[in-house]
Amino acid sequence: MPLPGPPTALETAEYLFNHIFRYYGLPEDIVSDRGPQFTSRVWRAFFKRLGVTISLSSGYHPQTNGQTEQKIQEIGRFLRTFCHSHQESWSQFLGWAEYAQNSLQQSTTGLTPFQCVLGYQPPLFPWDGEPSDVPAVDYWFRESERVWGEAHRQLQRALRRHRSTADLRRSQAPAYQPGQKVWLSTRDIKLRLPCKKLSPRFIGPFTIVRQINPVTYRLQLPPEYRIHPVFHVSLLKPHHPSVLLSTGPGVAEEPPLPLLVDDGTAYLVKEILDSRRRGSRLEYLVDWEGYGPEERSWVP
Q1: Which parts form a coiled-coil structure per UniProt (predicted)?
Q2: How far apart are CA 284 and CA 13, in angstroms?
C-alpha cells in the first residue's frame, strides 16, 4: 500500500482493516517490530478491543518470524533500483512488483505465493499479443511489460545475492534441547541504560521451551517481557553455571534480570550518589541494584 509518509497508529490499524482483515478476517496475534506505531497506546487499545494479542519482535533478524523482514529487503532492493529513474511514478507500478513477487517460485516450498494462498497459479499476462488500435492501451501494456521484466530480474538477483551471502556466513548451528538454559543476546533489544558499552551483552539465562525449526527456538521469558519469545539460534549461547573456586563448588550469583517496560528495558536504582549540571540538563550518578560499582553511570 503506497503511503505519502509514515502513518499514525490509528491510520495503520485502519489500513490493515481495509486492505487485509476484510479479505482474510481478524488475526489471533500480530507480530511487529518496535516502531512507534506498534508501541503506542492507541495501537494496543485498538486491538485489545478486537481481542487480538500484540507481540513485539525481539529485533531485526531476517530468519525470525516467518521471513517477513527478508521479504521486505527483497522488495526494497527492487524499489531502489526501479525508483532510481522513475521516482515520480513508482507507486502506480507497485502492483506489478507485487504480482511478480507472488508469481516467483520459492525455493523453500517449491511453490509460488499465489499457489500457497489461492491453491493455484493465476495466468501470466500475454505480453506478445497483437497491438491494440488504442494508443493509451498500448502504452499501458508497454510500460507494464517493462516493469514486469525489471521486477522479475531484480527479485531473482536479490534471491541469488541473499543465498550466496547467507552461504558464506552459514555454519553448523548448535543444537539445543528443551529444558536447557541459554543466554539471550541484547544486540537487538533496546536497553534503557545510558552507556551501551557497559550494558550486558547477554541476559538470562532463560529456559528453552521447544524447538520451532532447526535454527529457531522458543524461550520461556518472564511475563513482564513484552517481546516475541521466538529467537534465531545466532542470538543464543549455552549457559554454564559458574563455580566459586574460593569457597568450593557452588553457583555464582547472576546479575538480576532487567525489567522490560513498554518502550524498552528498565533497571532498579539502588542509590543516587551524586548530581551535576551539564548545560541545561541535570544528571545523577546512579548505583544500580544488583550491579557492582563499575556499572555506576550518569543519567539525565
Answers
A1: none
A2: 40
Domain ranges in the chain are 9-169, 173-258, 268-300
Is residue 262 scored above 80 in pLDDT?
no
pLDDT in the model for residue 295:
75
Grid cell for residue 180? 536447557
Residues 113-131 have a mean pLDDT of 81
Q: Which residue has the higher pLDDT, 217 or 71?
A: 217
Give the position of cell 534503557: 192
Classify domain 9-169 by CATH number.
Answer: 3.30.420.10
Which amino acid, 74? E
Strand 29-32 to strand 53-56: parallel, antiparallel, or no bridges (unpaired)?
Answer: parallel
What are residue 31's DSSP bridge partners?
Answer: 55
CATH 3.30.230.10 fits 173-258, yes or no: no
Query: Which whole number is the average pLDDT over 98-106?
Result: 82
**Cβ proximity of 63 and 70 under 8 Å:** yes
pLDDT computed for residue 198 by the predictor: 58
Q: Domain 268-300 - what CATH class?
A: mainly beta
Give this prediction's pTM.
0.47
